[in-house]
């Protein structure tokens, strides 16, 4: 919905680049930015003239997040026609997210798809002939974000929110029941159960908000288990990924001789590749222990890469892929058919039939390496990864979670003060509204529908 | 017989029709109230009570604007209760039990005393329409009566069909015949019509009941009233009683299920989920082996009694047998059995915010014809239709209440924006800003608005201004006056609230949930202020609410203001949605049909997403 509050979003394409631009627009943009920016020359941002650029740091309390250039545009001479602050920061997604979150926590709202452009239009910064283009943009961006939302629904945290919302909706209905049907012979909301639900919601929200810190992911790396027999080309694969990125590599000795962990940054996101011994069936006791260990590692990983040497005539690959899939139906699995440069067309055809989901890769020619990286990043961007807990990756959702938490805390405090239900309901509706931003729509009709479906109402 | 032209003809004399006639006439329109039976003006067809949760607020709103329902209710009340008093002030809801006959008599007399109202008893069978504009009505005797505007308030009478068990017969109410002709004509004009269903319980002889087996339900010790004017306050009250059904009663009722028109498919239309028949309750909530019944006297003198909660269309012998198994009803005598009624309605999405139809100019619909249920819902629509018909024919701006202004605004906006699949009843949860829509401030909210168009009297305006001024002064007093710890701490200790160490403004402690006006009155400065300024109960209550709930009231005001921007962006009447390719298909279809007036209204239509709204905004060019 279009409002005149202050909004923030990334103005450059998401993902890693040399620099990124974060745009803040709205009447409070200068005031908010001013509080989060420390100029190198000690200037106060709030009193700077329009169309000026300032070097300094974005700070969160005592913590410096990044060195940045901040541009100030005052209304009406800005892109949107409102007061605009643009922050040019370093391009890593981690930094981008840190800065976005900081602004969200300090009174900004995450911009809707196309909202800057819409504001620009509404403030007369574009002529009418551009209207159609803007409208299409909004529609298509919305489509895109909808896609992302649906993808997140499948693997992400929306399910968790949907369940909490359902529970809260039930309680909200009970609360409304007390209010609108006080005369009726119905059971009312059990406050102690409600208190428990509210603290549960608070807990989950806090966890999700914490998990959002992509920082956590980067600090520890997203664990990826590489399953494959020796000599199928695991180290060549890691080297191929490394060569491209020139990222920092740290080698951590594993608990046993055969475990090596390599941390590699792809597109600004840290991935921790965990080598395993493979899962080839064996009667050998020692190797049997190895298989058990492999599964332990796969348990902890968020993505499994199954790698085999496709130039080998070994036909076990298909069986093993099935085995992994059966054991970990929820875990993203990438099957890589390595050494594809050694294959004839006929052999390729054969493997395509045998393992249809497989990707050909040749570490030496570089075939398939880019695709693999994209796929891994894709998992992050669509929130398909689950870290025992869920990771929240969408800033819009982060914003909704923050607001939901704030409202939840008000509900809890209200209950401690023994507030009457109609006042509690104001904050409960707020929580439901923010949950609805994540899962879909909410309207008062939901509440009434719920009441009529579940309670015997009416004299 | 009718040579002259009326300004407004109101068809129907129920709650909607009566308020419509009163409003139009009081504004100065020459008004004719045409009804099939002048003896049943203001008839309470169902339960003998006005108000209740959300509904009581509506009555107060009408009264604040100069409607008659509040006054009629006060004058004919036999019991008064302020419901939900233990909740926040937004939930406080006045309800009265009424003397059914006096209620109707009061209505008739008040209308007779209203200048500009003429009466005529006959069935209106059709409208006279020229071009796209209604110019009068045609009666069953063939009379043509001319008018500039017509308001239809036909209630359950349009092709009404009454069901009792497997018997069915035409009728608008028990003992009254149905109205025909209007639906057919409107459909020929292109109106969409539908069927709805409602029901009513048996009426019984109070002398045949054993009240000693029931639980008395008395009125409030200090009864209040509906009207903001000086209507009488009840000195004595009649009691209601509560009893319960049992498994035996349910079993007896079940014996008649095969002859129930609800279950054998004879009734196809939709009834209200929140006002189910007793057979529906048993069927849907099979695990409950007891339901409440409220036994309500129909008046001061009559022995007739209304059995609230026992609405049914089962065969009369089954009703009778089952009711005789209810505690206290062992020897019950029937006045008349309960029944269900099906009737025509017109999906209200065919109306504008003024309740004028989109298809035929100067034609207005109010009440059950719009798919609503309830006296209060009907009356308030009638009032708004009466006001707007008058304003329209005098070429004045329409009178529309917004969702943050009145329950009446929520009601009408819901109806015309969302339509309704079942008889629509008001609930507080339908309002986004219910903390603002309280019964105590209905006058502050609406009297000035109504005064501005010339409906609310100067007397009402003067009273409202005095209340506003005095309560504001009292609130300011709490803001500016300090307490001393030694005078306030004993009170705080008494209510288990933490004590204070130093003097501070009274507002702060008064805002604590546990501290009430009674506590504050123990402070000499406070009681002194009350005596000095002669503050009455209403003013004190108003001030208390504004102090104690200021945080929430402010929050809701802020939220309401946020939406205001969208409320102010109008969509041109003939806006062509088909050219907006960026709208979703569903949104385009709904928008074409409902034709919202503002962006804000568009955003409330189901199926219209935020991105559709952005697209609309773009095309409306800021």
From TrEMBL, chain A:
HAMAP family: GTPase_MnmE (MF_00379)
One GO BP: tRNA wobble uridine modification
Highest rank taxon of the organism: Bacteria
GO terms for MF: GTP binding; GTPase activity; identical protein binding; metal ion binding
Protein name: tRNA modification GTPase MnmE
Binding partners and assembly: Homodimer. Heterotetramer of two MnmE and two MnmG subunits.
Similarity remark: Belongs to the TRAFAC class TrmE-Era-EngA-EngB-Septin-like GTPase superfamily. TrmE GTPase family.
Residues given in the record as K(+) binding sites: 231, 250, 252, 255
Protein purpose: Exhibits a very high intrinsic GTPase hydrolysis rate. Involved in the addition of a carboxymethylaminomethyl (cmnm) group at the wobble position (U34) of certain tRNAs, forming tRNA-cmnm(5)s(2)U34.
GO cellular component: cytosol
PANTHER family to which the protein is assigned, alphabetical: TRNA MODIFICATION GTPASE GTPBP3, TRNA MODIFICATION GTPASE GTPBP3, MITOCHONDRIAL
Binding site for Mg(2+): 235, 256
This protein's UniProt keywords: Cytoplasm, GTP-binding, Hydrolase, Magnesium, Metal-binding, Nucleotide-binding, Potassium, tRNA processing
Domain TrmE-type G: 221-381
UniProt organism field: Zeaxanthinibacter enoshimensis
Enzyme Commission number(s): 3.6.-.-
Binding-site residues, GTP: 231-236, 250-256, 275-278
Pfam families: MMR_HSR1, MnmE_helical, TrmE_N
Cofactor(s) named in the record: K(+)
Keyword GTP-binding: yes
InterPro entries: G_TrmE (IPR031168), GTP-bd (IPR006073), GTP-bd_TrmE_N (IPR018948), GTPase_MnmE (IPR004520), MnmE_dom2 (IPR027368), MnmE_helical (IPR025867), P-loop_NTPase (IPR027417), Small_GTP-bd (IPR005225)
Keyword Nucleotide-binding: yes
Automatic annotation (TrEMBL), chain B:
GO biological process: tRNA methylation; tRNA wobble uridine modification
Taxonomy, superkingdom: Bacteria
GO molecular function terms attached to this record: flavin adenine dinucleotide binding
Tagged with keyword Cytoplasm: yes
GO cellular component term of the entry, any: cytosol
Main location: cytoplasm
Keyword Metal-binding in record: no
Cofactor annotation: FAD
UniProt-recorded name of the protein: tRNA uridine 5-carboxymethylaminomethyl modification enzyme MnmG
The organism of origin for this protein: Zeaxanthinibacter enoshimensis
